[in-house]
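Lab manual, section 2.4: Encoding a predicted structure.

Procedure: take the sequence of the chain (397 residues), apply the prediction step described in section 2.3, and record the output as structure tokens. A sample record is shown.
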Amino acid sequence: MKFAHLADCHLGSWRQEELQRLNFQSFQKVIERCIQERVEFILISGDLFDSAYPPIEILKDSFAEFKKVHDAGIPVYLIAGSHDFSASGKTFLDVLEKAGFCKNVEDWEAEEDGRIKLKPHLHKDIAIYGYPGRKSGMEIEDLRKVYLSEMHPFTIFMIHTTIKDVIGTIPMDSIEKQKLPLANYYAMGHIHQPFEARESNSYYVYPGPTFPNNFQELADLNYGSFQLFEIQNGISRTQSIKIPLKEIAYVEIEIEDGLTATQKIIAEFDKLNLRDKIVLLKLKGTLKQGKTGDIHFNEIEDFVKKKEVYSFLKNISSIKIPESDFSTDSFPTENVENIERRILGEYSQKNPGDFTKHLPQLMTALSIEKNEDERSVIFEDRLLSELKNILKLSEII
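Recorded output:
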């Protein structure tokens, strides 16, 4: 037996046309490799599309790829992720399924005692169970209540969520592996980082995205990936397959003067061969003179175009401005943080209560800024997760 496991394709996610095209080409390469490997079936563990209602051109191209798989006689089993999930229950995954190109294996029923019974889709003697991802990690509480209706010689559990092993110190909701029903292969999605762990006869696998979905992922991953799992002569093995398409040129420059930064950046780029590469510019440092608005990014983009780059992205979120720049005329001896702290202290004394004690943390959380090239839905999930942790709502929501 051999099957492919992919997740987090996010087709239609990039607003830059050339990167959206590359995203789809990476998905095409995965499909092509699956057909070449003659896999028995394909698993897609959520976020095939970047939204429940993707653009028509993305749908049209996707249908063409699924037809190739269908014509090759390879069934596709999938679940919805946090992006292509819809609270109404209707998404374009249904259209793919109606066309006979895939099977959504989500099948469950809620019981009177609060537990959730999952029912399998059978592929020969292999049982495939699935439970979808939801916005803001809302599926995690449900996953603590699920159980599998029956045992089989080989069981696959498809989920789109976060397990504690992969998040480290990141403050976000997650579930312990031990709280999941027993399965042989956990086909997971949602975390955009390849991850593989084996405990006893169980594999826990995140294949990573089929293509990076933002600036930082391009810097960290460079390209997409998927997983191949095979059992031969009673021996099982799993392999991460990389899909390199374009070379990444990551350039990190420290600046102190916004007025001279443009020429400094161009001088650095002039030393490099950037032809047909995805160029990532990360600026950092504390500005002692000038401001970010003094950096002429149009001039920099014109320069890299002459160097024949494939795509150019910039990130300025690590540039800092001296605290003195934030002082106000009204409070010449206090910075904004001290003023906020004093006002909150006065308010808390006049309005004591359980909620009041959370105000400083809430103020800090609500000052979180959206990262360069970070999609709105990811920023919202990050902010909501932080607020839920502060208010200790994770056990209620």
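Check your result against the sample. The chain has three domains: 2-243, 248-321, 328-391.
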